Structures are given as C-alpha cells and as structure tokens.
Amino acid sequence: MYLNKAFLYGNLTRDPEIRALPSGQQVASFSIATNRTYKNKDGEKQDATEFHNVVAFGRLADLIGQYMKKGRPIFVEGRIQTRSWESNGEKKYRTEIVVENFQFGPSAPGGGGNYSKSAGGGDYFASSGPSAPAGDKEDAIEYPQPDISPEDIPF
C-alpha cells in the first residue's frame, strides 16, 4: 500500500485567490508558512521557514476564501501533487498540497471548525472543533470536578 499524505499547520502568507474552473467549481490558491527551530552544530539556535503552495477545490475553497486571510493560522491535511506545464518552450513544475481536510486556527471566528470531504465523495461536512480559550471569566466554561480518585483505579 502506498501513502501520499501531508499535514501542515502554519500561517497564510497571502489572502486566498479564488477562481472558477470552466466547470464552475471554485478553486482557492494560497500559501502557508511553517517554521521550525533547531540547534546547529555549534549549539546556536536557528530558525528555518518553509513556504508551501496549497490548493483547495469546491466547498473547501469557498470556506477558505470566505474566512481565511493573510496571517491567520490554519491546519491543512491533504496530498502532495506536482503539476507540470510548458511556457515559452521551457518546462515548469509546481508542487502543491491539495486540501482534503482543514481546520481553522485558534484566532478564527467561532473558535474553529473541522471541514473535510466525506467518504461518499463530493459532499462536505463540518464539525466544530475545540474553541479557543475564553478571555473573560463569564464566558469561561466551568467543568465539573471528577468523582474518581486514584484509589478507585483497579490497577
């Protein structure tokens, strides 16, 4: 079995560009910046940033185009795809992540939601994910205290 899966969590580097295919289906193109921190051979802290080209189709493109703006965090799950074309006699390539699922980052209105293509194909569903921590005490959710003590656990 082969696997082509990519998971990215980063910030949009530009507003999504929305276009329509000749079939009428929406396409959103945008890029995501991810970073990592590591220590080089001398023990100095280094930062490295990668920029990823991302494309979404259909309802996912509509949602991303409507709610996402430059600088907003997003979690994307998809597949890696490389396209090629010829321009002025020169062969060009572009590697992209094709979105299959995504989740708004914590600063999104409504606290974030998870959007993905259903197994039946073509249909999309949304489920609310965990919301961002509340800033005001009156908006905070109060969870009940657990009734289980460590002594109640049988092992």
Counting structural domains, the number is: 1
> Total number of helical segments?
1
Oligomer: single chain
CATH topology: OB fold (Dihydrolipoamide Acetyltransferase, E2P)
Assign the CATH superfamily: Nucleic acid-binding proteins
The residue fraction in helices comes out at under 10%
Ordered list of secondary-structure elements with their pairings:
Elements: E1 6-12, E2 17-20, E3 26-39, E4 45-57, H1 58-67, E5 73-87, E6 90-104, E7 113-117, E8 124-128
Parallel strand pairs: 4-6
Antiparallel strand pairs: 1-3, 1-5, 2-3, 3-4, 5-6, 6-7, 7-8
Give a structural overview.
This protein has a five-stranded mixed beta barrel with strand order 1-3-4-6-5. It has one domain (6-39, 47-131): Beta Barrel (OB fold (Dihydrolipoamide Acetyltransferase, E2P)), CATH 2.40.50. The model is unreliable at 118-135 (pLDDT under 50). The chain has one helix and eight strands. The protein has one helix at residues 58-67, and strands at 6-12, 17-20, 26-39, 45-57, 73-87, 90-104, 113-117, 124-128. The protein starts with 5 loop residues before the first strand and ends in a 27-residue tail after the last strand. The relative contact order is 0.16. By secondary structure, it is mainly beta.
